[in-house]
Amino acid sequence: MQDLDLKVTERTEALEREMAERIRVEDSLRQAQKMEAAGQLAAGIAHDFNNLLTIIQGHISLLLASAKSGMNSADSLKQISFAAERAASLTRQLLVFSRKEVEQCISLNLNHVLTDAGALLHRVIGEHIELQLSLSDTPANLKADENNLSQVIMNLATNARDAMPEGGVLKLTTSIEALDTESARRHPQSRAGSFVCLSVSDTGCGMDSATLTRIFEPFFKTKEIGKGTGIGLATVYGIVQQHHG
């Protein structure tokens, strides 16, 4: 009788583990489907918006070429052009997030990409934040679109900066990580093998659990109105997905 009770207990625990695993996988799949639907919406908006911007920028170029009414008019046109360029940058990020932009993947060493981006990163985060690079001894080789990879780094650095208004430390770390079959099974979107890992950490204010569940949603943001687009981390998500990360 004792053996039977033990078997029942073991089977019950096994079923509970299986159920918990099934719920976790289903939640992960639902999140992936949610992101895919949002990506399709973003792609439609981006294409339509980009068509309008092409017209705006074309006419601005004509006006700038023929402007004869003095500096004030020319300066205003330049400001309009600058705003249109920023809007165009937003559409590129939307296309990246929606995975509709064509990649140009080449062989890269992520360590070199981070080292080369160092000077620009210092300008992005400001003098009040210390930048630390901890790079792997082994070359962090991968195939990636260099522009998209740089976009990931800049978006994460910008978010870190905004979380440390009084200053702090931003640390970027590269390493080579191996995922075995069991590790891959626990993460439905991963696969077994050897991978380059980029870790970004900061000493900022962090976020609560409710925010954490929504950080990759397009247009979700915690900043006040007029600051941020809410597309930065969604773009990071899209680029990582494009690169099968």
Provide the fold topology.
Blueprint: H1 2-66, H2 71-97, E1 105-109, H3 110-125, E2 129-134, E3 141-145, H4 146-162, E4 168-179, H5 181-186, E5 193-202, H6 209-212, H7 232-242
Parallel strand pairs: 2-4
Antiparallel strand pairs: 1-3, 4-5
Helix pairs in contact: 1-2, 2-7, 3-4, 4-7
Describe the overall structure.
With 245 residues, this protein is of the alpha+beta class. The chain has helices at residues 2-66, 71-97, 110-125, 146-162, 181-186, 209-212, 232-242; strands spanning 105-109, 129-134, 141-145, 168-179, 193-202. It folds into 2 domains: 1-101, Helix Hairpins, CATH 1.10.287; 105-206, Heat Shock Protein 90 (2-Layer Sandwich), CATH 3.30.565.10. Helix content is 60%, strand content 16%. The strands form 2 sheets. Strands 2-4-5 form a 3-stranded mixed sheet. A two-stranded antiparallel ribbon has the order 1-3. The protein is globular, with a radius of gyration of 23 Å. The N and C termini lie far apart (51 Å).
Mean pLDDT reading? 78
CATH superfamily placement of the largest domain: Histidine kinase-like ATPase, C-terminal domain
Rg, nearest Å: 23 Å
Alpha plus pi helix count:
7
Contiguous low-pLDDT stretches (5 residues minimum) are none
Helix and strand composition category = alpha+beta
CATH overall fold name of the largest domain: Heat Shock Protein 90
Do you know the CATH architecture of the largest domain?
2-Layer Sandwich
Tally of separate domains:
2
| Oligomer category | single chain
Secondary-structure element series: HHEHEEHEHEHH
The beta-strand count equals 5
